């Protein structure tokens, strides 16, 4: 079991690092920019985050896709997404701690988020 968890951790790191390189989808309306980060696959599903940037500040963070292959994954992912969204808006950064009990979801969430931030805070 330990070897499996180690292999999974490596898989998540590889996928999250790759996700940062994927271009995010960006839509602009006036001074408000909405950016959807890339989907990041993990063992129990896919995580994808959308941000709204207003006047150069992260105004809103929403998970548009979360793992839902079973009730436990779904419940942990929903709790993690809520907690991470609040921390990200407060920190104005993806540099926040992951949520215990939802490590893979947290890492994937933050990877999709970072890609969205990179695209959303770029001029033009």
Give a structural overview.
This protein has three helices and five strands; from the N terminus they run H-E-E-E-E-E-H-H. The chain is α+β, with helices and mostly antiparallel strands. Strand 4 and strand 5 (57-65) form a beta hairpin. Helix 1 (2-21) packs parallel to helix 3 and helix 2 crosses helix 3 (103-120). The N and C termini lie far apart (48 Å). The relative contact order is 0.21.
Rg measurement, Å? 14 Å
Estimate percent helicity.
40-55%
- Class per helix and strand makeup: alpha+beta
Average pLDDT confidence is 81
| β-strand number | 5
Distance N terminus to C terminus? Answer: 48 Å
Detail the poorly predicted runs: 1-23
Spell out the helices and strands N to C.
HEEEEEHH
Q: Indicate the CATH architecture.
A: Alpha-Beta Complex
- The number of domains: 1
CATH class: Alpha Beta
Outline = elongated
Percentage beta strand: 25-35%
Note the main sheet. Answer: 5 strands, antiparallel
